[in-house]
Amino acid sequence: MLRSILLIFSGNAFGSVMLLVRNLLIARLISVEDYGVAATFAVTMAVIEMLTTIGLHLLVVQAEDGGDPDVQAGLQGFHLLRSVLSALVLFFSAGFIANYLEVPEIAWAYRVLALLPLIYGFYHFDVYRMQRRMNYVPEILSHTSSAFFAVIVILPLYYMFGDFRVMLFSILLQDIVMVAASHYLAERPYRITLDKALIKRALLFGWPLLINNILMIGVFHGEKIIVVGEFGIASFALIALGYTLTQAPTQLLSKTVTSFFVPQLSSRKNQDDEFSHMSMAFFQCQFILATCFVLGVVVVGPFMLVLLFGDKYAELIPLFIWLALLQGIAMVKIASTQISIARAFTGNGMWANVVRVIALPFAWYYATITGEVVTVLWIGIIGEILSMITSLYLMHRQVKISMRPIWVPMGLMFFAMGMAMVFALQQTDISDYHNILSLPVLAMACIIVALVFVSKDLRGYLAARNIVSYQE
């Protein structure tokens, strides 16, 4: 089991790093405005995908008859039908999207982007079927090889176009390679059928996932959509790059910790004392990682931005700490949702996301009043805190474990994040962000030491050397 987890993590990590490298290279090579346009491609595709995804690949893996050739062919046929509909929606929405972004002259690019769901519609589900026998390599290879290819074509595309088209064709080529790899690695021939009974079954299976995906549009892209609508492409480019730089490490950290703890939590779900102890260790680990991440952004964030991009994205520096706080709080929320899932309560994340999305209209309203991008992030942070509290409350009611061991570590984490806010508010000039020996920064470093000291469940868990003792 540990080998499978490490394989999945390493594959996800490599794919995430490759896509991060792609985005950073493109941001470095093209202008800020062109990068803003390029970033809208990713957001547009994510929105279309989330609005139509119902987890067909999960049905292949989880259903008792998911390995049946006829069932697989039917799901592949439904997947292609769904993809064709997504392509048509994007194609006919291209003019509206371009007008909303105030770039009507590039509506053609969004029509070209409509090829993406159409291409992905031919993805071979056999790579998912192989996971039924714990063979994750084909699916991982199809995604990692395409992500790597998306990076190596950047320079040739840049010399050919030199603008936002670099991102457009990099994404297209990535999907072509991914689909081709899925067919090359498949064991069965590719077949599609349309089965009404199977389509109905898939819809019943996938509608809760669809609702959660709609909420996730707001969680992952709500602030970006507000910024591009109210402040234009240049400001959107800053926010998009900031999200890329802060989401990538937090998601990778969270995936690592989740992959490590959740299988063990699930195996101990009927052992109340061990489950409670491990849950608290999970929380305390997230508190420490989130605080270390925010401190890392405070200390090295400005240097990293200048090193990678020079002065091109200097205006991102004052926003970077707020983005880090947003992602740090989101990291903690993952612990409570996953602990609930370990005991088969799957609604926690959905209701927490409802609270998070409710904050978006307020962010949009105050953005129009203040005319400042940072206002959107402040309200986003408040929404994320309320979402985290909702998730904690639901988890406590669902799994019925004592919350006492997390109050002090959580209080210390929020105190450290408060120090990061103080540091950000004290800065009056971009050069001030290099003053990493200020009192708030030193206080954060001391709080991390205190966090480790008070995280008794985590220290006890690690000291017991019980890390890989799974109960199958």
UniProtKB/TrEMBL annotation:
Main localization category: membrane
Listed GO CC annotations: plasma membrane
Subcellular location: Cell membrane
Protein keywords: Cell membrane, Membrane, Transmembrane, Transmembrane helix
Protein name: Polysaccharide biosynthesis protein C-terminal domain-containing protein
InterPro entries: Poly_Biosynth_Transport
UniProt organism field: Paramylibacter kogurei
Transmembrane feature ranges: 7-30, 36-60, 80-101, 107-128, 140-161, 167-186, 198-219, 225-245, 287-310, 316-336, 348-367, 373-394, 406-425, 437-455
Membrane topology category: Multi-pass membrane protein
Family: Belongs to the polysaccharide synthase family.
Matches recorded under PANTHER family: LIPOPOLYSACCHARIDE BIOSYNTHESIS PROTEIN WZXC, PST FAMILY PREDICTED COLANIC ACID TRANSPORTER
